[in-house]
Write a structure and sequence with these properties.
The chain has a domain of 234 residues: Rossmann fold (3-Layer(aba) Sandwich), CATH 3.40.50. It is globular and about 55 Å long. Helix 2 links the parallel strand 2 and strand 3. Helices cover 39% and strands 18% of the residues. The chain has a seven-stranded parallel sheet, with helices on both faces. A two-stranded parallel ribbon has the order 7-10. A two-stranded parallel sheet has the order 8-13. The structure holds uridine-5'-diphosphate-4-deoxy-4-fluoro-alpha-D-galactose. Uridine-5'-diphosphate-4-deoxy-4-fluoro-alpha-D-galactose binds next to helix 7 and strand 8.
Length: 342
Amino acid sequence: MADRVLVTGATGYIGSHTIVELVNAGYEVVGVDDFSNSSRDVLDGIAGIIGRKIPFVEADCSDMAQFSKVFESYPDIRAAIHFAAYKAVGESVGKPVEYFKNNLSSLLNLVDLMRRQPSANIVFSSSCTVYGEPDEGALPISETARTKEATSPYGRSKQICEDMLKDCGRAYENLKITALRYFNPIGAHPSAKIGELPRGVPQNLVPFVTQTAAGLRKELSIFGNDYDTPDGTCIRDYIYVCDLAKAHVAAVNRMLTQDSERYEIFNLGTGNGVSVLELVNTFIKVTGVALPYRFAPRRAGDIVKVWADATKANTVLGWKADTPLDEVLLSAWNWEKKIRNL
Ligand code: UFG
C-alpha cells in the first residue's frame, strides 16, 4: 500500500502541481481545500493529468471540527504538506487579524492532528520573504542567513509559523518537520491542465505579463528601473512550479525513508538571479508575442535583489530546479492561452 500524504490547499497553485508529482512518484494522497481562493475545476485538471480523481475533502483547515473529519476518513495519513494559507503580501497589510488567524490556526490545527498520528511528518510552505532584504555580500542567500524583521503580516505569519513548528518539533518526539522556503514560483504544468489562477488584477509579475500578452491588461508596469542592479530593475530567483512540486516529493521521501533531522529548512530556488527586464525580454523572445510595458515608480516594500543558495536542497534532497526559463515562460503562456481560449 502506498503511503498517504495529506495536501492542504490542494486546489491552489503549488498544491495542485504537487499532488500531480506525488501521484507520479507513487504516493496516495488526500487533498483538502475550502475553495476560498481556488476553483473546484482544478480537481478536474488534476484528474485530467493523472487519469483519476484524487481523494478529496472540502474543509477549512482553520476550523478544527471540519479539519479533524479528514483524519477520521483517512486514518492512514503518514505525511502532510501544508499549503493552505493566505498569501497576498499587499492585502495582508490591511488585514493582519485575518492573516494571523487563518495562517496560524490552520497550522496549529494540523500539528495538533498530526501529533496524534504514529508517523507525524509535516512539510511547511515557507517563503524567502523571511530573509527580508539580504545584506551586502549575503547573496546567494543560504538557510544559515539570519531572518529579518518582516515587512508584512504575511511575511511575519511565515516567520511565526516556522518558530511555532520548531517548538512543536522539540516537544513532540514523533514529529518531523521540513520548512521549504520558496523563492518565486512561476509557470504551469506542461499539459496546460493546471496553472496559476489569480483572482482579480494579478499582483505577481508573471500572471500580469501573460494577461497583458493576452490583451486583458493594457500594459505591464515595471516597478522601478533605477535600482542598484545591472539594468536597474529588481532581481529574483524564478523557479518552475513543477520543479518546486518535485522538491516536496523529495522532502516527503526524505522524512519517510531517511534518518533526517527532526527540523530541517531548505531553500527552493534555481540559484540564478533574473531581473524583471530580463524576464520580460525572455518572454517576448520565446513567445513572439508583443508585450507593451512601461517603467513605473518603485513598488513599496519591494526587495531589490534576492536569489537562493540552493546547495543544501541540491545535495541533501538530491533535487535541482533545472527547467530553462524559456520553457517555464512558455508553459505560463500556454496556460494563459488555454484559459482564455486563445
Ligand atoms: N513586478 C513588476 N510589475 C508587476 C508585478 C511585479 O515590475 O506588475 C516586479 C516586482 O516589483 C518585483 C518582481 O516583479 O520586482 C517580482 O514581483 P512579484 O510580485 O511577482 O514577487 P515578489 O518577489 O514581490 O513576491 C513573491 C511572492 C510572495 C513572497 C515573496 C518573497 O509573491 O508571496 O516573493 O520574496 F513572499
